[in-house]
Amino acid sequence: MHAGTAALIDMDWEAFDPQRIQAVRHSLADHPLLQPDQLVALGKRFQGSSHLFTFNNNAGADANFDDVARLYPNRRSVTDTVQGITDANAWMLLRHVQADPTYRALIDLALDPIKPHIERKDPGMYYRAGWIFIASPHTITPFHIDRNHGILLQVHGTKKVYVWDADDAEVCSKQARECFHSRHELDQVKWNEAFRERAHVFEVGPGMGVYMPITSPHMVETGDEPSITISLTYSTEATRRNAMEHVVHDLLRRKGITPPAVGSHPLLDRLSYASAATMIALRGVGSRPPACPSLAHRSTYAVAD
Question: Phi then psi for 228, rounded to 5 degrees?
Fold first, then answer.
């Protein structure tokens, strides 16, 4: 662990609110492990596994993230994609890089020094993960939501990050969030061009980034250069509870019962949490609906799924 190391990530910690989108600064842009040659080597180690996810840049903001790789395939190899990213017309994700010991150490180096700041307001950090994005110029990351808090850090190139508040039901309905937590489906997370007017917009370059709370809808557009970005994600006791409450609300809705929004009825939320905890303890990750591994395993690092 690196608790005594100088922080590589900084934000206004006094103003930090785990449910509020916030700008970030960082000192990772020149780190050797985030340069193209090392990313090619990592991609080769991940070749043929679920750690690689890629598509071509014909995909737009409205593409369903669950289907985008199938509908818009990138047929280049890892080496050809990364080394020729300027002209590859591609988007590539190296998923769960914490599975690689060298990159796990990088994640610890970044998160350990800021963990005390985070846990003052959002205790119980666990399930750390790293995601490295490599994208050609003028490439879109489709509109979607994630099931953990995330710190997006720009390493090379520029991009425009559109982020919406996690509780903006006009952009992403409570039913869509329930379905996402319960069944990991993004079918109800639908893009609309009118959403741009409601977004928090960050134009980020190397050394800049954005903190995004759990299920904050977001969409990203790269600029005129190739882009390299690392996103660090983690769960906390609050995100675990929130996800479990959504799981039970989805079950109720599928039984024909319309529950109030999560957070609006504390007693129901407590009952939902207790019910989900019991279900997951009895059935584990194989429960129906399937539980996110972060609900069943409070491990330090995320499990590649």
Answer: -125, 130
